[in-house]
Each structure stands twice: as structure tokens, then as C-alpha cells.
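Sequence only, no structure available. Ideas?
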Amino acid sequence: MNEFERWRREFPEVSGAVVRMRNKAFSDGSIPAKYKVLAALAIAVVEKCKPCTRSYYQKAIEMGATKDEIKEILEVAVTMGACIAETWAREVWQDGRSEDDGGSCCE
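Reply:
I predicted one. C-alpha cells follow.
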């Protein structure tokens, strides 16, 4: 059990609310869920949340995002976040191609 799983067991009402919020926010609506996840990936890069970037990268792949779509959304993140976002986007691109998964608050 990772730290996030322990947290969720200790604080089920709060963590459950966050999970319900994510389920609603990332469901299909006027905007397909895949594009919402890609937007979350760009935001996570700009905010520099490594666990979030790993999680949203993987979710984007699972939802059918292509490598080209991910590249383009990372370009948007770099544009919005300037140099520091470029550094994080490079890390996301490298991490996304590795098999290491340390758990995430965004799962």
C-alpha cells in the first residue's frame, strides 16, 4: 500500500470527495474526457506536480491520446509556463516513457 492509499483509508470522507470530484471533472461531457486529461497534464506541468504529470500522462495514454497529441499539449504547457515549464515537460516526456510508477495523488 502506498502513501496515497494509506491517506485515503485514514481520511475517507475528504479523499472520497476528491475522488468524486475528479470522476465528475474528467468524465465525458461537452468536452471529451481525453481532452480534459490532456488539459490537466498541461496544468500539472506548469504547476510542477511530478506525481500529477505521471498520472495524467498515463491516463492520457489509457484514454487513447497519441504521442503526437501529448507532444502538442506539452508544447502548450511550455508556451504558457516558459523556461521552467520546458524543464518539466522534458521530465514528463522522459517519465512517460519509463515503467516506474511511484503512486500519485491524481489517481
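The two ends are 14 Å apart (CA to CA).
Hope that gets you unstuck.
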